[in-house]
Amino acid sequence: MHRWVKERNVTVRDTRCVYPKSLQAQPVTGVKQELLTCGPPLELPSFYMTPSHRQVVFEGDSLPFQCMASYIDQDMQVLWYQDGRIVETDESQGIFVEKNMIHNCSLIA
């Protein structure tokens, strides 16, 4: 990465490491090149869901759920289940399932 930045004359400002945890929050430009590795085991967050806590809702209220999972490969699927059945879009019930690929994440809402 250091070589790539220098070769392309890229300006890096206030960019900090996220991975690996041992380098977390350190400025990228201040980290020794030999420490910038992506060896196993991966520590990257692989799954987020919102809301993450119990919610109180009343009949007729809208409650959006969102799940984001790190992209692993083309065969990966993220699906919603309720009572053992896959949840699919049902406009008459007010249920809308949207699936998107954003950069390297699979997003389902």
Automatic annotation (TrEMBL):
Protein name: Adhesion G protein-coupled receptor A3
Entry keyword Zinc-finger: no
Protein family per UniProt: Belongs to the G-protein coupled receptor 2 family. Adhesion G-protein coupled receptor (ADGR) subfamily.
Gene field: ADGRA3_6
The keyword Transmembrane belongs to this UniProt entry's keyword annotation: no
Residue ranges annotated for the Ig-like domain, each copy included: 45-109
Coiled coil: none
Keywords linked to the UniProt accession: Receptor
Signal peptide range: none
Segments traversing the membrane: none
UniProt source species: Saguinus oedipus
Matching SUPFAM superfamilies: Immunoglobulin
